């Protein structure tokens, strides 16, 4: 009776574990799955990025540009920024909204930083630039 009880509990534990709804790495090559895991992603996070068209290389570019949080990566990506460009804006001290505003007015990250460091806001910089002036 004692052994039978333990065997029954063991079988139940195995069945419950096998029936879990853990996301899997289905649809990934073994190499891509390994690379995504090296980047610290779970399969559900990887699936989220894959739905956006990201690969391990794309995600690595975002990490290299200084972004490590999924929500930041997706926010900048959804605003139309590529990893390198977003990294330049962020390194220049701009948040997403400001970077988007300056870029919409055809300023590069470097130009915007130059104007901003000289205490010009976007409206002033836009006006002066339209007159042929620079931040210098």
The profile of the biggest β sheet is: none
Low-confidence stretches: 6-21
Number of contiguous helices: 9
What is the beta-strand fraction? under 5%
Task: Tell me about this structure.
- The protein is mostly helical and 136 residues long.
- It has a domain at 81-136.
- 65% of the residues lie in helices and 0% in strands.
- It is built from 9 helices and no strands.
- It has helices at 2-18, 30-38, 43-51, 56-64, 70-78, 83-91, 96-104, 109-117, 122-130.
- The longest helix has 17 residues, at 2-18.
- The termini are far apart.
SSE arrangement:
Layout: H1 2-18, H2 30-38, H3 43-51, H4 56-64, H5 70-78, H6 83-91, H7 96-104, H8 109-117, H9 122-130
Which properties best describe this structure?
9 helices; 136 residues; mainly alpha; elongated
Briefly characterize the structure.
This protein is an all-alpha fold. Helices cover 65% and strands 0% of the residues.
């Amino acid at each position: 009776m004692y052994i039978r009880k333990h065997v029954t509990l063991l079988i139940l534990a195995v069945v419950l574990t096998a029936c879990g709804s853990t996301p899997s790495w289905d649809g990934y090559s073994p190499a891509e799955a390994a690379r995504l895991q090296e980047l610290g992603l779970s399969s559900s996070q990887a699936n989220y990025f894959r739905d956006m068209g990201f690969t391990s290389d794309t995600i690595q570019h975002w990490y290299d540009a200084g972004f490590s949080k999924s929500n930041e990566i997706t926010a900048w990506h959804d605003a139309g920024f590529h990893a390198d460009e977003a990294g330049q804006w962020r390194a220049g001290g701009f948040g997403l909204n400001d970077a988007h505003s300056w870029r919409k007015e055809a300023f590069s990250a470097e130009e915007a930083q130059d104007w901003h460091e000289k205490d010009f806001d976007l409206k002033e910089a836009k006006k002066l630039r339209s007159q042929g002036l620079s931040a210098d």
